[in-house]
Design a protein that fits this description.
This protein is an alpha+beta fold. The chain folds into three domains: 1-20 and 38-60, no CATH class; 99-187, Roll (Pdz3 Domain), CATH 2.30.42.10; 191-422 and 438-465, 2-enoyl-CoA Hydratase, Chain A, domain 1. Helices cover 30% and strands 23% of the residues. The strands form five sheets. Strands 3, 4, 5, 6, 7 and 8 form a six-stranded antiparallel beta sheet that branches. The chain starts with a helix and ends with a helix. Residues 401-443 are annotated as: Disordered.
Length: 466
Amino acid sequence: MRGKLQQAGLVMVGLCAGVALSLNYSASANKEAAAPLPVEELRAFAEVFNAIKQGYVEPVEDKKLITNAISGMLSGLDPHSTYLDPEAYKDLQVGTQGEFGGLGIEVGMEDGFVKVISPIEDTPAFRAGVRPGDLIIKLDDTAVKGMTLNDAVKKMRGKPKTSIKLTIARKGENKPIELTLMREVIQVQSVKARMVEPGIAYLRVAQFQENTAPAIAKELTKLDKQGIKAIVLDLRNDPGGLLHAAVGVSGAFLPAQALVVSTDGRTDDSRHKFYVAPQDYLRGSKDDFLKTVPAAAKSAPMVVLVNGASASASEIVAGALQDHKRAVVVGTQTFGKGSVQSILPLAGNTAIKLTTARYYTPSGRSIQAKGIAPDIVVDDTPNGSFQRLREADLERHLETPAAAPEAAPAKAEPSAKAKPAGKGKEKDGEEQDAPLAPFEIGGKNDHQLAQALNVLKGMQIVQKTR
């Protein structure tokens, strides 16, 4: 018996070595010397594999064991690296097109529970009052503790018009909150636009998808017919999305060939600079939509609104417009998701999402675990800001590098006078007032938007007096 185990173990070591060699070959574009294979660790893996095969209480398929091993390797790296089975891979591809099934929640994993990063606007989760930072502890009657993130997401998704009960733990609440949500086909309207006041164009980006940048260009052209004198670009609660969409949106407001973002990682193909250039924002043979953008988009006074749920692509756009002094950034510190995930397809319609680089703003500032500091700090409401989960709160998050390549000094953090992250938080042993009431972004009671308009009016006055 032991002889068979040792023989099988050697076969598994050989198999793992072959996989490791193939992965090492593809990752050696930086021409670094290949590190020796960890033979002892691979032998330990093989012994565990065979111990499970031979002695586990129930038979387990080889495929399941290997898949779980791959998933564990990736999830142990950082919060954003993960294994995508065929269903998850398909969902990822469909999601970038702006339509998918489920509840409409951007989620991560912390302490074995699903933690809400941001609900997507106009979805069941958003309408039910799910908030950033909520901890989902049960799905129907099943405890989330012990599930993988993929398993939890699968359980939340399902056929439209079927219901699911979420049990949520929320800071400031004495007992769990139970919400019953009806699943829908989630169709995210990426861009909404209108004249919020005469001459002031308001553009809201909910998520960066394939059609986001062309939609921004189209809406700017429409609004320009009414006369654009100032612009508000609202990126609050935007969890991000596609990099080329972020470059395209930035390009609507920046001059041609302006640097938008750079990436830096270990391999040559992870080091790149993205400019306002067709090769960096177009896909396929599409027409260059930026050629239709009106001149006012490049010169009118501009404010970018951000908050703690503005992440990834949103931070790229805000950072680029801030560094080029094209816009004043107003709101609260952003989420701080400044890492690049590459999708590497595997056999069987599966893939891995692997963190391969960090993002840097045009001046060389790292976004990772820090975010974009607004030029003018404005809380979510007149009474303070909501508590939100940020990248720096996630387990195993990548740290901000000590120094970015050719980096300029980072902008100062928000003023120490800025209010803490909302009420409902215990301080000095006393519980503060009830949690702040949510509001409609872009609505009548939107405190940050009102302050952004005040900033713009001041900028317009300054321009006129020059």
